[in-house]
Amino acid sequence: MLKLFQYNWQVRDDWFKWCESVSEEELLKERAGGVGSILYTLFHIIDVEYSWILELKGEPCPEEPPFESYASLAKVKEFSRMCHQEIEPFVISWTSEMEHQILSETDSSGKTICFKYGEIMRHVIAHEIHHIGQLSVWSRELGRSPVTANLIRRGLFDE
Amino acid sequence: MLKLFQYNWQVRDDWFKWCESVSEEELLKERAGGVGSILYTLFHIIDVEYSWILELKGEPCPEEPPFESYASLAKVKEFSRMCHQEIEPFVISWTSEMEHQILSETDSSGKTICFKYGEIMRHVIAHEIHHIGQLSVWSRELGRSPVTANLIRRGLFDE
């Protein structure tokens, strides 16, 4: 599980670097698909990972902060750093015994829904990769090369 | 590992259904980003999964077939079915002991490169999710709702 999180964190940092050479106007511009803009996508990825993992940790999950307060590259990077610090230890200490632990949630209609911890962890992984795929299309539409999505050759499996 | 493959296979089938309501012209139209068109993306995902897993199985890997021979929804679906049949047993029988097995490859410059089996498996997973993210943007550009990328609530973790 950890390797796929580490992949996402590397790719996210690569996109932060990519963002440095793009104007803030383009980063905030509304686009078709996903959650709408490049910066909001990065913000959303961080927030979703953070919220689910806080829930798995059994900690109270704050409301999603308004994107308006984070609508700059520097602020989104800082948001990522802050959230990462809080959730990384949980991801690092993940063991296969935690797979079948149950997270109970109450949905908007008052119904209780149960998720396996392993289901949530994989959901978070897939969520980030999916949204990064969207950034890659927008990047080409901007006439720029996207960050590579390759998982191999990132040194993730070096001893 | 299996759950993320099963997620990809479900999502892929959902996209095949989505494709049924879109004209072949739109499915084949060249778009910005990724490998270029909706159908070619699906073809490419299947081919990459198939080729890597054949390599892990130690079987000779055929050349990528020319997309021109598969450029219709029916043919890509058939290609998926055929490849799936050959690779599913390997994915199902995956165990954590296989993680560190080594796949040696010779790159175009004649250099030997080594990959862990676990690295390749995760690469294949991330590869499909990433390209599906691209389809979701193109779908919105076509004015259509994309297939949901959610991994939760797909029944993947029901007993």
UniProtKB/TrEMBL annotation, chains A, B:
Residues that span the membrane, as ranges: none
Task: Name any one GO molecular function.
Answer: metal ion binding
Q: Does the keyword rRNA-binding apply?
A: no
SUPFAM superfamilies hit by this protein: DinB/YfiT-like putative metalloenzymes
Q: Which UniProt keywords apply?
A: Metal-binding
Pfam entry (one): DinB
UniProt-listed InterPro entries: DinB, DinB/YfiT-like
Q: Which residues bind a divalent metal cation?
A: H44, H127, H131
Q: Does the keyword Metal-binding apply?
A: yes
Protein family: Belongs to the DinB family.
From the Swiss-Prot or TrEMBL record, give the protein name: DNA damage-inducible protein DinB
